[in-house]
């Protein structure tokens, strides 16, 4: 066993897949000799050579488009967005070209687009985004969003092996903040499409993913201690396809649901989850489905502003307490 | 308004050696393209074509000649055609019946009625259909060329872009990436004078598309797009250089779109007399035939035989599919992913 960070687990997963399968290659901005803005691909260029770790121009649409073309021909590209905020520059390529390829034309496009997302790091409006809701609406894409060290590794490996295009979102606040013992020599693969119960509970369920999963766990701990409320926490891990069975199971168990995400509120993932619960488990509910999310503003820079806009542990505690008492 | 210049602005090295059989084969594809489109017009007027109909009248020469310069066959070169490159598609081995089925959205069409016109692929034969977002195929074809480079395969990609399409960001991003990576890619810039109804002077401030390519360090030439020989030769040279590791090449073909954007378009924006002038003085098939016959390269009877053969083939293809059914409604759902996830078990299906 060795204790590794989220970032190191992701790096290991990429490395192992590059070693295992020579069809896998990386392309993106500053991913080569520099090793990536966050050093996710540090040392890759030296080990695998410049032809498999390709430094590209600042051209997100071309990065994603070229990855798609290479994937059609049987390669397994992993395209890095230096910050996931820049994925909007490739929105057309991802949604119109990549996501539709199999359905409209029978084209195989096994590729991963990955990049650092998320706030709590004073990154301002263009280095803090969570773009998942913009792509949830796109049939043909898969979206994974690991919250743990183990899943950072297990999901990047599963994403690379997947036959369909996968958007892999990695929260930069977690990169070096969380650590976990990972077994050496054991292959870690996290199945895409399966949520995980992060904490068992009886009275109320919190459904979350990414950085707010940790804030939800913190809130659950506080509620247990202060109020004696037993909170179950579900880590979605994959957002598309969504694990309806796991969501419905936790609703049936606790009958109260709080959905927590870092992304803004209107049109966010929570709305979709609420709709699915409404369709599939309405009669099991003992209270309204509640949401804790960011406020509907671009994410501001100043600590006072960012902390106010993003969901914090105390916001989750407050909402859960209200719901528990409902 | 004077006819826009069509003279080549760069000399084309001559050296193409085409046998009489190859010359006739090129003629076959030219005639097949035009006859297919004439058939599609008839089917369109009978409301059997479901969506729009896009003609390449006047541009058949550059489509056929450029594709003909590629190595064709299983796992050889790959091209990506636009809607006005029916000729390129036919050269690469797409079958007339497949194209008719596509236009009529038949259940047995290559995309099972999911996509329109020439938006379909056969990567083994070497063609990748476009999507409607112009420019997107440049990065995608750069990726295909990248796969050739990474695997050390002696293959080349070829992709078309219209004069209007060169205004898109993806065109520039893709061309630049291909240039930096020295990818084996040939880009054919089709200066056909109309982007829907927009003329070149409202589309860009340069005179030639080739100038744009030069800005990325990409070798580029401008040729008379209605001269089959010139287009073939320029493409042959570019393809050969790309295959030898000399990177991306750009060929601008000056041609003219003699029909509207699609069949519904009445072309009221075209200056009077311009269409007639191009039809009379600068039709690529007429010019090709004239040159073949003047230089005594083929016999007139051989051309006539091809005309007859093409008519029969298009008739047979039409008869084979015109009465076929559309796809059953329930076939709309599967195939978004390889492994249907839970989303395929949609809740409304149980209602």
Question: Which SSEs are present, and which pair or pack?
Answer:
The complex is a heterodimer of chains A (326) and B (351).
Chain A: E1 2-5, H1 6-20, E2 24-28, H2 44-48, E3 53-55, H3 60-72, E4 76-80, H4 91-98, H5 101-105, E5 112-117, H6 132-136, E6 142-144, H7 149-161, E7 166-171, E8 179-182, E9 196-199, E10 204-208, H8 211-227, E11 231-235, E12 238-240, H9 244-254, E13 257-264, H10 269-281, E14 290-294, H11 303-309, H12 313-324
Parallel strand pairs in A: 2-3, 2-4, 4-5, 5-7, 6-7, 10-11, 10-13, 13-14
Antiparallel strand pairs in A: 1-8, 6-12, 9-11
Chain B: H1 20-45, H2 60-68, E1 78-80, H3 86-91, H4 96-103, H5 137-151, E2 157-162, H6 169-180, E3 185-191, H7 209-214, E4 220-224, H8 228-243, E5 249-254, H9 274-281, H10 284-294, H11 300-321
Parallel strand pairs in B: 1-2, 2-3, 3-5, 4-5
Helix pairs in contact in B: 1-2, 1-10, 1-11, 2-8, 4-11, 5-6
Short description:
The complex is a heterodimer of chains A (326) and B (351). Chain A has 326 residues and is α/β, with parallel strands linked by helices.
List keywords for this structure.
heterodimer, A: about 325 residues, alpha/beta, Rossmann fold, 2 domains, seven-stranded mixed sheet, about 40% helix, B: about 350 residues, five-stranded parallel sheet, disordered N terminus
The strand order across the widest sheet of chain A is 3-2-4-5-7-6-12
Biggest sheet strand line-up of chain B: 1-2-3-5-4
Total domain units of chain A: 2
Please tell me what the overall shape of chain A is.
globular
Largest interface, by Cβ-Cβ below 8 angstroms: which chains and how many residues each? A-B, 49 and 43 residues
What oligomerization state is this entry in? heterodimer
Alpha-beta content class of chain A: alpha/beta
Mean pLDDT score of chain A: 97
- Percent of residues in helices of chain B: 25-40%
State the order of secondary-structure elements of chain A, H for helix, E for strand. EHEHEHEHHEHEHEEEEHEEHEHEHH
* CATH third-tier fold name of the largest domain in chain A: Rossmann fold
CATH fold node name of chain B: Rossmann fold
The CATH superfamily of chain B is identified as: Thiamin diphosphate (ThDP)-binding fold, Pyr/PP domains
In terms of structural class, how would the helical and strand content of chain B be classed?
alpha/beta
**Rg on CA atoms of chain B, Å:** 20 Å
Q: Which architecture of the largest domain in chain A would the CATH scheme give at its second level?
A: 3-Layer(aba) Sandwich
The value of Rg of chain A in angstroms is: 19 Å
Number of domains of chain B: 1
Please give the number of β-strands of chain A.
14
Helix content of chain A: 25-40%
């Amino acid at each position: 066993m060795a204790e590794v960070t989220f970032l190191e687990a992701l790096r290991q997963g990429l490395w192992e897949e590059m070693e295992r399968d020579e069809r896998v290659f990386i392309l993106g901005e500053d991913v080569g000799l520099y090793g990536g803005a966050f050093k996710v691909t540090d040392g890759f260029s030296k080990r695998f050579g410049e032809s498999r770790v390709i430094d590209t121009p600042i051209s997100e649409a071309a990065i994603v488009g070229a990855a798609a073309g290479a994937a059609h021909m049987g390669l397994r590209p992993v395209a890095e967005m230096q910050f996931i905020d820049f994925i909007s520059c490739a929105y057309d390529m991802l949604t119109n070209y990549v996501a539709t390829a199999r359905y409209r034309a029978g084209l195989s496009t096994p590729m991963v687009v990955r990049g650092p997302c998320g706030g709590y790091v004073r990154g301002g409006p263009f280095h803090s985004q969570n773009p998942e809701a913009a792509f949830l609406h796109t049939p043909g894409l898969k979206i994974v969003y690991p919250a743990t060290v183990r899943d950072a590794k297990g999901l990047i490996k599963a994403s690379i092996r997947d036959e369909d295009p996968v958007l892999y979102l990695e929260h930069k606040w977690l990169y070096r903040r969380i650590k976990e013992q990972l077994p050496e020599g054991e292959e870690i693969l996290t199945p895409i499409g399966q949520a995980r119960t992060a904490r068992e509970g009886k009275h109320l369920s919190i459904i979350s993913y990414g950085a707010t999963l940790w804030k939800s766990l913190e809130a659950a701990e506080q509620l247990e201690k202060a109020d004696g409320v037993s909170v179950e926490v579900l880590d979605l891990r994959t957002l598309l396809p969504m694990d309806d069975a796991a969501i419905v199971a936790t609703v049936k168990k606790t009958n109260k649901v709080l959905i927590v995400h870092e992304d803004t509120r209107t049109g966010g993932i929570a709305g979709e989850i609420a709709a699915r619960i409404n369709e599939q488990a309405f009669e099991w509910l003992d209270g309204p489905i509640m949401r804790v999310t960011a406020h509907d503003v671009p994410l501001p820079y100043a600590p006072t502003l960012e902390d106010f806009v993003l969901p914090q542990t105390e916001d989750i505690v407050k909402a859960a307490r209200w719901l528990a008492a409902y | 308004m004077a006819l826009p210049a069509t003279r080549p602005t760069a000399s084309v090295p001559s050296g193409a050696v085409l046998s009489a059989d190859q010359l006739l084969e090129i003629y076959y594809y030219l005639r097949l393209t035009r006859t297919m489109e004439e058939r599609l017009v008839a089917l369109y007027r009978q409301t059997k074509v479901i969506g729009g109909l896009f003609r390449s009248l006047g541009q058949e020469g550059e489509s056929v000649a450029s594709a003909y310069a590629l190595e064709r066959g299983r796992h050889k070169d790959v091209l990506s055609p636009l809607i006005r490159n029916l000729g390129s598609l036919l050269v690469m081995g797409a079958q007339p019946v497949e194209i008719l089925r596509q236009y009529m959205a038949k259940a047995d069409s290559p995309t099972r009625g999911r996509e329109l016109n020439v938006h379909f692929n056969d990567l083994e034969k070497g063609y990748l259909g476009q999507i409607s977002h112009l420019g997107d195929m440049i990065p995608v074809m750069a990726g295909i060329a990248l796969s050739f480079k990474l695997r050390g395969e002696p293959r080349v990609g070829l992709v078309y872009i219209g004069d209007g399409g060169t205004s898109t960001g993806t065109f520039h991003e893709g061309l630049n990436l291909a240039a930096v990576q020295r990818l084996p890619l040939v880009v054919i810039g089709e200066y056909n004078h109309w982007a829907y109804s927009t003329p070149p002077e409202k589309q860009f401030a340069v005179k030639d598309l080739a100038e744009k390519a030069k800005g990325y360090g990409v070798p580029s030439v401008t040729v008379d797009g209605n001269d089959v020989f010139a287009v073939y030769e320029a493409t042959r040279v570019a393809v050969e250089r790309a295959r030898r590791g000399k990177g991306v090449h750009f060929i601008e073909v000056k041609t003219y779109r003699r029909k509207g954007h699609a069949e519904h378009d009445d072309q009221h924006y075209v200056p009077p007399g311009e269409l007639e002038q191009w039809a009379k003085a600068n039709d690529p098939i007429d010019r090709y035939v004239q040159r073949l016959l003047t230089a005594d390269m083929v016999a007139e009877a051989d051309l006539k035989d091809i005309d007859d053969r093409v008519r029969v083939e298009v008739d047979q293809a039409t008869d084979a599919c015109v009465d076929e059914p559309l796809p059953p409604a329930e076939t709309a759902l599967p195939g978004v992913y390889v492994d249907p996830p839970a989303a395929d078990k949609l809740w409304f299906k149980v209602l």
